[in-house]
Amino acid sequence: MKSDILEDSKIKKNIIYNIFFIILLIAILIISIVFYKRIFKFSLIIGAFSYFLIVIYYVAMVLDIIILGSYLYYCFNYLKHKVEYNKVASLFKKTDIVTYISHCIVILMFVLTYMFTPCSVSGDSMLNTYHDRDRLICSNLFYTPKKNDVIVFEYNDNGINELFIKRVIATKGDTLSYSIASEVLYVNNEVVCHNVSLLQYLTIIDSDKVVDYTINEDKLLVLGDNRNVSYDSRYFGLIDEDKVFGRVLFKIFPFGKVTNEILD
């Protein structure tokens, strides 16, 4: 009798544990389906075998839910019909390694894709804030782009999707203006960039006339901190907010120069 009580207690604990993970996995699956574009953007960072890893991610989620659901069924069946506990425990042991691996794959991929994504700097366009080959962590969790944020965004350059890192200079509601005589770009009458050619300003505002331009859509003006060499909005215009991959949170490498990007 005492043994049965202990077994029932173990089963009930396992039921609670598995219900929690099933709910968590279903929530992750829904998020991953609704925001599926995010994981394809993450594939730009993964590079080789990216689509294979994406398939593994979704398969691991579904497999995990099926295994935990099956185990729940046997647990409830045990409590109802008092099937031998050893049979339930044996099933759990047989699937233990598989569920553990699936948990690791799903949680790791979800964290890296939707919460804290590693990325790296290529080039000198963000000097002296970030340097070539710096390793960064960015996040898009509950994020709305703001002025002065350093962001990573997707841009289709000559038919190739690439990720760029730049600083947000203007957002929706800001007014851009330009001085032909001094070649200065203004945002809300404040100087943001010198040596801007007429063609570059016309590219930014997507016009053939020099006029003051108010950003009325969910678009961003982005510039590199190293203006002299940066390939930015002066060359490809304003970018759409939905192309933003995330805000840079901090630098993790080189280890001696770890910094936080803390901006108002």
SS element count, helices: 6
Helix content: 40-55%
Shape category: elongated
Structure classification: alpha+beta
> What is the string of SSEs from the N terminus onward?
HHHHEEEEEEEHEEHEE
Distance between the termini: 64 Å
Sheet with most strands: 7 strands, antiparallel
Total beta-strand segments: 11
Using only C-alpha atoms, the radius of gyration works out to 26 Å
| Beta content | 15-25%
Mean pLDDT: 84
Instruction: Report strand order across the widest sheet.
Output: 1-2-11-3-4-9-10
Low-confidence stretches: none
Keywords:
alpha+beta; four-stranded antiparallel beta sheet; 6 helices; about 260 residues; seven-stranded antiparallel beta sheet
Description:
By secondary structure, the chain is of the alpha+beta class. It has 6 helices and 11 strands. The chain has helices at residues 2-34, 36-46, 50-81, 85-115, 198-205, 233-236; strands spanning 117-120, 135-139, 150-157, 160-170, 175-179, 184-187, 190-193, 213-214, 219-223, 239-240, 244-253. A 7-stranded antiparallel sheet has the order 1-2-11-3-4-9-10. Strands 7-6-5-8 form a 4-stranded antiparallel sheet, with helices on one face. Helix 1 packs across helix 2 (36-46), helix 1 (2-34) runs antiparallel to helix 3 and helix 3 (50-81) runs antiparallel to helix 4. It starts with a helix and ends in an 11-residue tail after the last strand.
